[in-house]
Amino acid sequence: MDLNTVVDVRDARRREPWRDGDAWLGGGTYLFSEPQPHLRRLVDLGRMGWEPLARRPDGSLEIAATCTVAQLSRYGRRFLDAPAAPLFEQCCRAFLASFKIWNMATVGGNLCNGLPAGPMISLTAALDGVCLLLAQDGSTREVKVTDFIRGAGVKDLAEGELLRSVTLPGRALECRTAFRQASLYGLGRSGALVIGTLDPADGSLAVTVTAATTRPFRFWFPLPPTAGRLRAEIDTAVSGAEWFDDIHGLPEWRRHMALRLAEQVRRELVTTTATTTTDIAEEDAR
């Protein structure tokens, strides 16, 4: 879509004062998807030269905000040697998008849209990701993904502030993972997406609920909880208004599916492989 109110596009490498009507341009898949009458200038991040993905000496993985979905998918499938690697492709596949979008849409853009169904939010929240934010004066700050997204479309971003990258700790990448997604339609937007991670170092379990809620909720347990405790923790933490309500699912249905999927990932991670395969197949058939 043409943005006929935009009168200038600036290279982000050229520092200029931020002004009303400015917007960061990454992949542009959202900006060009609908009218943006408030915009006057785009600040293009395309030539910043940030390395899309970098594994650090401490085992952590830094994902640049400009990393595309296609690059993330390829990295998870071909280059990431870690137990959590399959989760990258599962979350990329949760996008309701064509291959064209995959090659343009960025991880940072998906987070900064702050939509409940954003699968990059799901991935980075589940793996305990930390956002690096860059202000106009050059100062930086860090905030966890679970705190960065404050509500449906609401982010912890000041005027002109930039999401530079998201870092996933090495310990999170060593976790066993379980993934469940539900939609009202076969190829529809996620109505509920639940990810479980089991830390082999200390046996702790985390269950992250997204898409069904207005913001990501990550529940951490020092030892795997019972089904009753997990259900109670979710119901206690998520208030009625925080179950998302739109055309892709009513709050009551989203809550039902989130609780159901949370129990499935809990059982998959705390039982043996043989038991898990049988139990989950029986549960899915009911």
Automatic annotation (TrEMBL):
Alphabetical list of InterPro entries matching this protein: Diverse_Substr_Oxidored, FAD-bd_PCMH, FAD-bd_PCMH-like_sf, FAD-bd_PCMH_sub2, Mopterin_DH_FAD-bd
SUPFAM superfamilies, per database record = FAD-binding/transporter-associated domain-like (SSF56176)
Q: Which Pfam families match?
A: FAD_binding_5
Sorted alphabetically, which Gene3D superfamilies does this protein's record hold?
3.30.465.10
GO MF entry, a single one: oxidoreductase activity
Q: Where is the FAD-binding PCMH-type domain?
A: 1-173
Q: Which PROSITE patterns match?
A: FAD_PCMH (PS51387)
Show the PANTHER family listed in the entry: XANTHINE DEHYDROGENASE FAD-BINDING SUBUNIT XDHB-RELATED, XANTHINE DEHYDROGENASE SUBUNIT C-RELATED
Please state what the protein is called: FAD-binding molybdopterin dehydrogenase
Organism from which the protein derives: Streptomyces termitum
